[in-house]
Write the structure tokens for this entry.
Amino acid sequence: MAASFSPGYRGLPQMAGLCTLADAQRSDWSVDESVRRQKHLHYLLRRAYEIFTFRITGEPIYELKMAFSYHGYLCAEQVGAVRKRVGEMREPPLGLDQVPHPGLKHFCDEILAAPSSETLVFGLYEHLIPAIEDISGNLIRDAHPLADSPTVRVARLILSDLAEIQEYGHEALKCLVTDDQRREFEPWAKCLQQCLSAVGGPDGTQLSTGELPAAMFLATPFQFQSEPQRDERFQDPFNAGVNPEAFLYDERFSPRDKTLMMYYKRIRELDVPEMMASILYDLNHEEPWGFHEEMSRQLWDEARHAMMGEVGFASLGLDWTEIPINFTWSRNLNSQLNARERHGVLYFIEQGLMPKTGKRYEWEVGLESGDSLSALFQDFDWADEVLHSQIGRRWYVPRFSSLNEALDYGDDCWSKVMSHWRDDRDQGRTEHRNWWPDLYRQACAGWGVDPDPAALAYDETYEDTRADLKDISMSG
């Protein structure tokens, strides 16, 4: 029986507010049990990060691509927190790369293999994220509040992020999954529940049935979809008929007009997560966790940049679905280069954005344009790209003997990529329509100004140049 003591000085809360003195006298907890449960938590968080990330490229719905980019990043951040905490608890080697129970693997593999957007959303937000919430909530309830306070804090932070994920997930389920589909999914839902029952609940604290279900969606194992998929709002995705970089650096055009082209450049960054997801998939077991954690942040930043472009168009009263959002950069890199080569191209581009003619210039254009939203977005876009360059210096450059060698490799890899500009036109995939004049006229009408004749006549394409304006006339 716990002893009774007087309250703290002048009634101040005791135990730093973590718990009561009576609660602190509990002794039904141990380092081994804390670590065991955290290994379950770590496994499901890492698999959630992987599923969100690995499904980005093949997910056609734009809003889900953006959400998966964010939710994968949040899960990756919390994986790092759990890894740090386990490493503090007499656990080297940590054993975090081991599967805690085959039922957890079966459970996650089934969700990864979900064959449609609707089934994937159902598996993620109806089953996987709630399972992680269960483990976190049970840790907060069961862990010793004083002795294991750091673990309780990690669990609370995880629940905070998961609450945000689930708020989105509940809305996604309402929008995408009908009552009829829920009934169709019932056998799969039972399969997923049976996986967890075999474990004894997500954290193994309940009675285990010991029986794994037969494979359902997993009967057709997941294969990474390297060809970017876009929903029906995306028209003419092979269109490379407008070169926004050449317009941006042309001194004939005004900062205001360049702002419109910068908003296009931002929303087109949708293809960067589609490419980066392929790097993270291919290098999943070749790079340490720190690589994935930092690269997931970069991937999320690129998704944010795409949404900045969407917001920019909305602020001007323009409908982004009326113009082609090109995907050939990610498509060509994913199909023509290996993961290391794609990473090289990514880093080369990032470094090219660091000089005054890069992101600083875009921010200055935003300031000069009088469009405060453009200036704000370019300010943070610039800051993000500086971070991305630093991430590349930590995880990409050390593979080479010097920075120049690392840059040359990325440039060479990009030069190997065939643009297929003429093939796409000749084989009927696109006419490379010049969509700029119509968009520019609409923007000028909103601004209440007459179009600049020189800007209206702009018609430079990507036929013989790439995004850094380097000549590729021999690349096809």
